[in-house]
Amino acid sequence: MTQSNSRASGATRDHLGRPIVAVTGIGLVTPLGIGVEESWAGLLAGRSGIRRITRFPTEHLKTTIAGQVDLPEEAGHGPLTSPGRVERMAALAAEEAIAGAGIGRKGAFPGPLFLGMPPVEVEWPQRLDLARGGVGAEGSKYPALIAAATGRTELFEGALFGGVGERLADRFGTRGAPIEITTACATGASAIQLGLEAIQRGEADAALCLGAEGSVQPEALIRFSLLSALSTRNEDPARASRPFEKTREGFVMSEGAAALVLESLESARARGATVLGLVLGAGERADSFHRTRSNPDGGAIIGAMRAAIADAGLEPGQIDYVNAHGTGTPENDKMETLGMRAVFGEGCPPISSNKSMIGHTLSAAGAIEAVFSLLTIRDQRLPPTINHETPDPAIPLDVVPNVARDARVQRVLSNSFGFGGQNVCLVLGAAA
């Protein structure tokens, strides 16, 4: 029995006998707004959330634009550090998702937490503060910094990678040890994959899956700039992110968070939950080719796409739309096109990039784009790829240029391709 027929008959198991996994809650924080509906409305309207950076001085930087999220508690105060922003945005998204799912009692989520987040470290303002606390000319040297940090437990806790997940787990009362993961730009999708597989294995009936990113800060911006990965179209921020377009020249850094409440379909039905969509399958492949570049043969990208479709029990022709990784770098868009043509042949479905409007949210991207994929299915409307002014003849794809479009969408492939060849693809489907 095919998976689609299995779902149509009301079954709760997929083509491999695993529990079908439903999404019953979603939450979003993006440069377009805080909350699912505000972000989604902005995306369908083709509105850009990219603007000039106001959080720190940019006079001597090559790139001075980003997708910033303005948090309410920052008004009139200094910005939170990156770990603080990650935790706060993850909490906002999780609160929205859990409330929408109506699951568990307050502070007691009935499943594990899977958190995708960036590596964290002490940032420049904190280092300068420690240096000032050192002794004379030796203050900037490592032993003096260690001495100045003695007793500063907030620095240690803020830069402790696992600490963010532990605090979120305490806040929402998730079960078991929280899992934090970072797989470069595939991180958010990896968190969803972990939740999907935990439910499929019967280890949990529900999971809280989060992807969060808060790295719009000087050091991260400079590091990506040194890789020549960022757009320098500073004079017109809204038009800087140009996935699949001929004049593209780099991605735009951004931040945000997304949360998904996953449940076995059987559990969701038993408690009368509203099912927003299904996570039908996941595929991952790594190529270990280079620290930042993908193998030019596209093998891992193609393999991840094919693996996700096969895991869902589908054929490529059953995918109605692809939510692109679509960063706007010359190499990534070329590689994704290669993957599309290899997997779908001449009959490629429409593909569009949310990053044209919200920028590249890095560790959060896979989770944010999974939520947008579910909303695409819900509303039967494809979000556009904006800033598509000059088509690239090397990219013969329908990229839904500039304007959203009504379409029949039952299944979406959502692509996440990360530095170091870490690739994760998800297949999302309509509720039964």
Give the tags:
Peroxisomal Thiolase, Chain A, domain 1; about 15% strand; alpha/beta; transferase; 11-stranded mixed sheet; disordered N terminus; two-stranded antiparallel ribbon; about 425 residues
Overall radius of gyration: 21 Å
Structural class per helix/strand content?
A: alpha/beta
Order of helices and strands: HEEHEEHEHHHHEHEHEHEHEHEHHEEEE
Count up the helices.
14
- What is the CATH top level name? Alpha Beta
In the predicted model, the low-confidence regions spanning at least 5 consecutive residues are 1-8
**Which range best describes the helical content: under 10%, 10-25%, 25-40%, 40-55%, 55-70% or over 70%?**
25-40%
User: How many domain regions?
Assistant: 1
CATH topology: Peroxisomal Thiolase, Chain A, domain 1
The end-to-end span amounts to 15 Å
Mean pLDDT figure: 92
Shape: globular
**CATH homolog superfamily:** Thiolase/Chalcone synthase
Q: In the CATH hierarchy, what is the architecture at level 2? A: 3-Layer(aba) Sandwich
Query: Major β-sheet, in short?
Result: 11 strands, mixed
Identify the quaternary structure here: single chain
User: What is the strand tally?
Assistant: 15
Q: How much of the polypeptide forms β-strand, as a percent range?
A: 15-25%
